[in-house]
Design brief:
Elements: H1 2-5, H2 9-13, H3 15-24, E1 32-33, H4 36-52, E2 61-65, E3 72-76, E4 79-83, H5 84-89, H6 93-108, H7 112-122, H8 125-131, H9 142-149, H10 153-160, H11 164-180, H12 186-195, H13 208-212, H14 217-229, H15 238-255, H16 258-263, H17 272-284, H18 288-301, H19 306-318, H20 322-335, H21 340-353, H22 356-369, H23 374-386, H24 390-403, H25 407-420, H26 426-441
Parallel strand pairs: 2-4
Antiparallel strand pairs: 1-2, 3-4
Amino acid sequence: MARGRHATGILRAVAAAILTLALALPAAAQTLLRDAELERAMRELAQPVIAAAGLSPATLRILLIESDAPNALVADSSTILITSGLVLRMDRPEMLQSVIAHEVAHLANGHLARRMGNMKAARNAALVGLAAAAAVARDSPAAAAGVAAGTSSAAMRRFFGHTRAEEAAADQAGMRYLARVGVDPGAMAEVLEIFAGQEALSGSRQDPYMRTHPLSRDRLRAARGVAAALSVTGTPDPAAAYWFARSRAKLSAYLRNPSWTLRRIDRSDTSDAALVARAVAHSQQADGASALAAADALVARRPGDPYAHELRAWVLFEARSFEAAAAAYARAAELAPGEPLIRAGYGRALLATGADARALEVLQSARARDPRNPALLRDLALAQARTGQTGAAALSTAERYALAGRLKDAAIHAKRAEGLLPRGSERWRRAQDILIAAETDD
């Protein structure tokens, strides 16, 4: 059927990533942390390593998962998932870069092809993209629990299935990439040492990293040997340390108790990372004045930094100063026109001010670059409804529910969209695709 060729295009694109996440982490912890500054930092750390592997940095992205459990996984040919717990356990940027290098090596060495075969043998990829996609929805982790609960531990082992030989090969290749770009390859062994000794524990007591990356004493010994033998030939990128410190400070401040964060920042510390942490922590405490003071200090120091302006906009939005937040987001979007997450924030702020037509324009441009963002779809549906595009609003809502794994709810809104949209149009076909997927899932 012609309709089948269009089926769930957005959702199919994330099928592998979502299944990986659903199997690797506790269902309740499966939340993507979408933040423009954090994703920029991951790009800064990853780009030299990806290029050293002969891959294109433009086609591979690093996404962060909110979970205390440390892990990193290749989700598909264009996505690496890293948990917040792993990032916060890394003491220096070279360690995080070594994790990225290891995962990039799996891609460069072709280890993903067998995993994709295992996935297809286990479940239909399009249905997995729908049923397991709750992992990307912050407000619906429960739907992912059914996927995790319905997947046997044997299936998990078959899906991940990295052999010790593959792990050793990824270690060695990853360390070569690191040395090639001037990064200490010994950082790889440092990361492995964090998990050393866990092979003696039962699977339920091991960190997820151990369950997906088999570790032995021989592997650790080999990594140390390779690191000692390699000559570092490249020049390290000085931006890596800066973005590591800044992103780690932001991530920690966002996830941890704000009082804990503020107690641990030295009063004399006026670094960019400290300003970011203070802004986030004070905002979490609903101390808008102190949060804005920290954000303003960062903007004054780095007036051309879009992420500083975005932080200021977020602080203002959280303080319900919507007009000021929209102006700050506008400046951030002007400085970084290619950042869809900044534009999504701008659109949300415009909606809060009542500038619905402009919000719709901004949100549509953001969605064109980032079609997998449930929060953006929620705001887009609101903008469409307020501007009289009821059919489009119903479709955006249906797609948001589908991404959350709520297929029955998605079908209700898709059916409404089908009746409101021009028959045969691209949007009408998308509504049909969701209906087909919902019927198949019954």
